[in-house]
Amino acid sequence: MSISVKHKSKPGELEFKLLLAFILPVFLVATIIKRVMPWNWGSDQRSLFAATRCAAYSCIPFVFM
Fold first, then answer.
1. Domains of the chain: which residue ranges?
2. Per the count of CB atoms within 10 A, which of 21, 44, 51, 61 is most buried?
3. What CA–CA distance (Å, rounded) separates 33 from 26?
């Protein structure tokens, strides 16, 4: 007996995931560049990926407006 769970996607979920997959590497590169600048050393104590996710998730809703 197999139990199958069908995922009902919300409107815009696919577009959000595709946009996130495209923009996350862009923000990762931007975060790395920001971190290697001498005047920013030690200013952000979050991990590299946490800072990238925060920047991406705060910017993506503006695309859907």
1. 13-37+45-62
2. 51
3. 11
C-alpha to C-alpha distance for 25 and 7, rounded to whole angstroms: 27
pLDDT at 2: 58
pLDDT tens-digit readout, 5-64: 566 767 778 888 888 899 999 999 998 888 888 887 777 778 889 989 998 888 887 877
Contacts of 31 (CB under 8 A, 6+ apart): 48, 51, 52, 55
Angle at the Cα of 59 (from 38 to 26), degrees rounded to 5?
55
Residue with the larger pLDDT of the pair 2 and 38: 38
User: Hunting for tokens 């998730």 — which residue is that?
Assistant: 57
**Where does the chain have alpha helices with state H?**
13-36, 48-59
